[in-house]
Amino acid sequence: MQTIIALIAVLLIGSAQASGQVYKVVDEEGRVTYTDSPPADEEAGESVQVPEVNTQPAVKPRPDQDSQATANKGAGGYRDVYITQPAHESTVPPGQLDVVVQVVTDPALKPNHRVQVFYDGEPYAPPAATTSVVLSELYRGTHQIRAQIIDADNRVVASTEPVTIYVKRHSIQHPNPAPYPGAN
């Protein structure tokens, strides 16, 4: 019991010190220093009232791709359907010409199902029995990619959350940089 009382006393003393006093000290040359130690010469320093610390409540994090996939749980017999590549809100640098879209399904894509990839809301290519599609000739700007799983009757049985990418390209105002010295 004495240990608990001693622990509570230490915690109370520690919290009192954490919200302790602040002193403003001005030296002979006019330099100002703020400290939590009282000055040796009381005339050299003064007590400063520090306002309460501005705090904000924690922001609820945006769900990651794995948790986005749970929105489609059970759709069309798939537990999870989501895009793993490219990452949400990733940037495609100027030298990168192609982007690989990788769709993950759990369980694996069924034999009579196909994947339809959409780029900015439009089908990028015909539905295919593959979970990997290469996007090429991308224009600069912000773009959304999503995918749907389509069954043999052309019904959508599952879909992914959209993934946003930012494509950077050189412009007339910012032409391609000069090649590195020695590059041919």
Task: Report on this structure.
- The chain is mainly β and 184 residues long.
- It has 2 domains: 20-48, no CATH class; 65-167, Immunoglobulins (Immunoglobulin-like), CATH 2.60.40.10.
- Helix content is 12%, strand content 34%.
- The chain is built from 2 helices and 12 strands.
- The strands form 3 sheets. Strands 5, 7, 8, 10, 11 and 12 form a 6-stranded mixed sheet that branches.
- A hairpin with a 2-residue loop joins β7 and β8 (122-123).
- The radius of gyration is 30 Å and the shape is elongated.
- The termini are far apart.
Give the tags:
Immunoglobulin-like, 2 domains, mainly beta, six-stranded mixed beta sheet, 184 residues, three-stranded antiparallel beta sheet, 2 helices, 34% strand
Q: What is the compact description of this entry?
A:
By secondary structure, the chain is mainly beta. 12% of the residues lie in helices and 34% in strands.
Radius of gyration: 30 Å
Oligomeric organization of the protein chains: single chain
Q: In the CATH hierarchy, what is the architecture of the largest domain at level 2? A: Sandwich
The structural domain count equals: 2
CATH class of the largest domain reads Mainly Beta
Structural class: mainly beta
Average predicted local confidence, pLDDT: 78
User: Superfamily at the CATH H level of the largest domain?
Assistant: Immunoglobulins
User: What general form does the structure show?
Assistant: elongated
Main beta sheet strand tally, sense and closure = 6 strands, mixed
Q: Helix fraction?
A: 10-25%
Number of helices: 2
Runs in which pLDDT lies below 50 for 5 or more consecutive residues are 12-17, 65-72
